[in-house]
Amino acid sequence: MKPSLSRYLVAPLALAVLASSTLAHAQQKLDVLHWWTSQSERKAADALADALDRDDIQWRDAAIAGGAGIGAMKVLKSRLLSGRAPDVAQLIGPAIQEWAELGLLLELDNVSTQNGWSRAFFPTIWTLVRQRGHVVAVPVGIHRINTLFYQKRIFAELGLTPPRNWAEFERVADKLKRAGVIPLAQSSEPWQVATLFETLVLSESSPSFYRQLFTRGNEKLWFDPRVTRALERLRRLKQWMPDPIAERHWEGVARQLASGEVGMWVMGDWAKGELQTMGLTVDEQFGCMPVPGTADYHLYSVDTFVMLADDYGSQVQQEKLAQLAASPAVQARYNQIKGSVPVRRDADVNQMDSCARASWRTFNRGALVQAPSMTHRMASDEGLKDAIIAQLHRYFADEHIPASETQRRIAALARALGNRKSED
Fold first, then answer.
1. From which residue to which does the signal peptide run (predicted)?
2. What is the pLDDT of residues 345-354, one digit of tens each?
3. Three-state DSSP class for 289?
């Protein structure tokens, strides 16, 4: 029997359709650049990737190691300049508006309107993701930087109570030291030193003063006695730290707390996520509370993604990621893993642990109690941030440098960089 003509026509057509379908499926990918490389951060990224996968979109990971996103930002700029921009990138703080001004970011107004972001997000978050009336970023979580972690087993064995002020802290630290436990964990990595310092500034002052110092770039405030006290406390705390203070990745410091080698640690609440991946549970193996003197304040950093507006070939997939990342279900899952809290005002606090509830409720009190982290890219531009961190690290490492010299140097840098920015 002769094969019919239709067989010769249908088979190639079917192959063409299949090839077209396969190509379309292959195009359902998003190249995502970020700096989440620790165990807990990877799990949090996987939660977002899994949500995308259910919509048949592949998260193509481009994770760049390096604390505080230093390496990732360099790679992002390099890729952009070489014409290989990712579809999605982690970008936070003032940089969002700067990149939007250059026309580099996809506007997410339709996604925002359809999902009621203006009503759902905290006012501070809503302001953060908008530029000239357009939504240009999707927020995924709020971190509290002014967090003191403590080892519950050691505290229970020694009959210690978590310190609420610095006098109590020194008494607790002294007892830990006499018991052979390093009282306060610390790495000499510059960004980790700066993280501790900015919590001390907040402890010695207020969110209003903090914002004037770091956000508004008032160089005269660097000579304020409150800054002097913060610098002096930073150095005084060294007596409770490891000797010598090694340059250790924050994940390694987390393991020190988990093992009981150290009793306390000041770090953003992403540390909670890392401790959880080690099998530790909040309120059982470890506890967390605000850094002494900051119980009513929230020093924050917000994880955000931007969609790069290249040829708009991935716009549908980019908008889908934005919609999913801000949805209540994904927000709850992601932040439970990451250690942060949802950006939504309608979040279910019953799904949060005690540390997360305290963070979310404090942030919910509004802008008067909120301070944007300098170290974690929420307050200053990149140039000033890097200059401040370098000077703080120099002061921390060299006992011979007086606080007054560091204040003078940073004030001069703030004045010079501020003038250059205004000229630009």
1. 1-26
2. 999 999 999 9
3. strand
DSSP-derived letter for residue 307 is E
Q: Kindly report, residue by residue over 266-304, the tens digit of the pLDDT.
A: 999 999 999 999 999 999 999 999 999 999 999 999 999
Q: Which residues pair with 184 in a beta bridge?
A: 264
Is the confidence at residue 233, as pLDDT, over 60?
yes
Alpha helices in 374-402 (DSSP H): 382-397
Q: Which amino acid is at 226?
A: R
Biggest distance spanned by C-alpha atoms of the chain? 99
Torsion of CA 259, 375, 347, 287, to 10 degrees: 20
Q: Write the pLDDT tens digit of every residue in 401-410.
A: 999 999 999 9
The predicted structure's pLDDT at residue 419? 52
Angle, CA 277 vertex, CA 275 and CA 281 arms, to 5°: 55
| DSSP single-letter state for residue 302 | E
Domain edges within the chain: 29-142+303-359, 147-299+371-423
Tell me what percent of the residues of the chain surpass a pLDDT of 90: 85
Q: What is the pLDDT of residues 3-49, one digit of tens each?
A: 443 333 333 323 332 333 333 444 489 999 999 999 999 999 999 99
For residue 159, give the DSSP letter. T
Half-sphere exposure of 273 (CA within 13 A, CB side): 26
Do 29-142+303-359 and 147-299+371-423 share a fold? yes
Q: Examine residue 242 and say whether the peptide bond preceding it is cis (omega within 30 degrees of 0).
A: no
Q: Which CATH architecture has domain 29-142+303-359?
A: 3-Layer(aba) Sandwich (3.40)
Report the CATH number of the 147-299+371-423 domain: 3.40.190.10
277, containing H or E segment: helix 270-277
Q: Which residues contact 408 (CB under 8 A, 6 or more apart)?
A: 222, 223
What whole-number distance in Å separates Cα of residue 129 and Cα of residue 95?
A: 11
> Distance between CA atoms of 173 and 195, rounded to whole angstroms?
20
